[in-house]
Amino acid sequence: MASQGTQDERSEEREAQFGLRLLEAPVIRRDDPRAYTSIVDHLNPGTTIERRVEVSNKSAVPLRIDLYAAAASIRKRTFTFAAGRTQNELTEWASVDHPVLEVPPDSKKTARVTIRVPRKASQGERYGVVWAEVASAGRGSVKLINRVGIRIYLDIGPGGEPPSAFRIQKLTPSRSRGGQPRITAQVRNTGKRALEMSGKLWLSEGPAGLRAGPFPATRGTTLAPGDTGSVTVEPDDARLPNGPWKARLSLTSGRVQETVTATVTFPTAGMQGASIVPDFMQRPSTLSWGLGALLAILAVVGVLRQKRRLARRGD
Known about the structure:
This protein is mostly beta strands. The protein has two domains: 150 residues, Immunoglobulins (Immunoglobulin-like), CATH 2.60.40.10; 120 residues, Immunoglobulin-like (Sandwich), CATH 2.60.40. The protein has three helices and 20 strands. The strands form five sheets. Strands 2, 4, 5, 7, 9 and 10 form a six-stranded mixed β-sheet that branches. The chain has a five-stranded antiparallel β-sheet with strand order 15-14-18-19-20, with no helix packed on it. Helix content is 14%, strand content 46%.
């Protein structure tokens, strides 16, 4: 399970040779990939949850590692970390059983993060991050701070979890000035939870029957409910012919997935092609999961009824 952070923070993690990962996911989210790298949950007011995390020291010297929760937000379609140890409402509810860990060389230790939601907490989604931090001496009186964290997406409200859904609205092919091909998808969050977008692109039926891919989507786009943003895929071959191609793009956020197809033609270097409204191959998979859950419940009810009938006959 990869820890979360900005690119700079991930490079700092490698230099400091320590890491942080989530050790468990709630049973109800065992099929949600996000639940293994981030604390993602929906809670009723007055609920308390706990999550175990693992801190690893990969260096040859002992490390003193601080663990704490700090504020985060979604700004300009990016999950944004607040400076330092800035707090918000969510982090006031969060605590760590071992705020400081002395970790020997080439070893690991665990800690427990607890989030206690007040009974009077208002409805809505909150964001934060659990940080593991190592401070080291720099030049003069300057201290170098290296940290790596696990994101928190926590929705508060009565009843069941609000739905997650999105819509791929259009695809736009383009090429950079250096000739690098690119497809940009415009995506709208039509659900009630924040989304971390990832995905893959396949190209087929190209000139002379060429096929290419899959190519990964550039990660980092986080969409708040109701927000619209761009997800980009850059095939790693500038020699890729202009086309036309049949493009199949599959985007995912946790358990929600949508796949579209379109015929695209890349323009010449430095240009942008016409935007295309894609064809939808499938609707977000939350619908199928909902139907599956309903069928499972009906099946259980049917079995229970059958057992009752047999018991009555036995009497």
